[in-house]
Design a protein that fits this description.
six-stranded mixed β-sheet; globular; five-stranded mixed β-sheet; alpha/beta
């Protein structure tokens, strides 16, 4: 078993086709408290649907979903169709929810999207839009780790086996010439798979010497005295890499394209509003985090975390292919066929109507 930090959670089965990728420890996601948003009175139902079920994570790399929900962007576009929400703590469980039909569309990281697509032989989901770039850092105990080379021999937390940050850290460690067993996490550096919610406690207790984690966990560690040793954005051209995409089940996309377009319009509108009103967007996202988790982020943590996240409609498809290559080299994934993982038709129609440039699928669009 890989090193882990104990936390209340149930283990899901390892993906059969990708035997080294463990599923996340949570159920289908928790139904977040009702925020009082209701279908628009007198408005027609979108695609005749009573509701559209939207999934996202309770962290700032899903700021589009957080702020869009809090400000009512999704409900406005869906009109007489109710926007329902489920909050997840890990990508594989959201993919499972998409597969079962308990979620129609959601915000998710690149690794679970790739894993889910590959596991189903390209049949279960599509990436239909972008959401965020950046927001991932290596934070360490400055008393134990003075430089990047000092990471060798230390205990570094990642959120879960095979997740986006786990893959990124394993790839980075390999580039340093260090050997780490991807399953056990043992090697020249010890990888500790730890839920983001308990990683700050693990850092505080000294159980880990640092962590490669998304926001706001990274800034929470800094608030505990940690030091940012590396911002993952510095490893990418133009400092851009996908951290969150919008995905939809292929069945729902085929049957209800108007509903998918409505959610995408709301996503694009939310991002535009957030770029124009960053302080208000940051506050809205934090209010939704408080509603979902019962606790808002301290202002110092929120401010630091928000600065490292870029909201974007572009799914940055070329970086997804690179990240999949990282997982293959790390031994966490067999080389996947990602042909058709993207369908940006609806997104590009929306962007064109707004006079914005089209998003590129890097040759991984629908197979004609």
């Amino acid at each position: 078993m890989p090193p882990t930090i104990a936390a209340p959670r149930r283990a899901l089965a390892v993906l059969a086709a990708l035997p080294l990728l463990a599923l996340a420890a949570c159920g289908y996601g928790s139904q977040a408290p009702d925020d009082g948003t209701a279908p628009v009175a007198g408005a027609a139902k979108t695609d005749g649907l009573d509701s559209v079920r939207i999934g996202y994570f309770g962290n700032l790399t899903h700021a589009t979903a957080l702020a869009g929900r809090q400000r009512g962007f999704f409900q406005k576009e869906l009109g007489g169709t109710e926007a329902k929400y489920a909050v997840f703590s890990a990508g594989p469980s959201e993919v499972e929810a998409l597969n079962s039909g308990s979620v129609d569309i959601g915000w998710i990281g690149p690794s679970p999207a790739v894993n889910g697509y590959a596991k189903s032989g390209g049949r279960n989901l599509r990436i239909v839009g972008g959401s965020a770039s950046g927001g991932v850092k290596l934070v360490v105990n400055p008393e134990k780790v003075k430089s990047l080379k000092d990471v060798r021999g230390k205990r570094i937390a990642t959120p879960q086996l095979g997740n986006t940050q786990d893959v990124a850290f394993l790839d980075w460690a390999a580039r340093q010439g260090w050997k780490v067993d991807p399953q056990s996490g043992e090697g020249d550096v010890t990888v500790v798979r730890s839920d983001n919610k308990v990683t700050p406690d693990a850092y505080r207790s000294g159980s880990v010497d640092g962590a490669w984690v998304p926001e706001p966990t990274a800034s929470k560690l800094v608030a505990e005295g940690g030091k940012v040793l590396l911002d993952e954005a510095d490893l990418w051209p133009d400092k851009k890499f996908v951290i969150t995409n919008v995905v939809v089940s292929q069945k729902f996309l085929k049957q209800h394209p108007k509903a998918v377009a409505a959610v995408l319009r709301a996503s694009v509108d939310t991002n535009a509003w957030a770029r124009a009103h960053p302080a208000e967007a940051k506050a809205a996202a934090n209010r939704q985090l408080a509603a979902d988790t019962g606790k808002a982020l301290p202002e110092s943590v929120l401010d630091a975390a928000w600065k490292s996240i870029r909201l974007t409609d572009d799914p940055l498809a070329a970086t997804l292919g690179t990240q999949a290559g990282h997982a293959v080299r790390a031994g966490l994934l067999e080389k996947p066929d990602l042909s058709g993982i993207y369908d940006l038709t609806l997104l590009n129609r929306i962007l064109k109507a707004k006079g914005d440039p089209a998003a590129d699928d890097a040759g991984l669009g629908p197979v004609r």
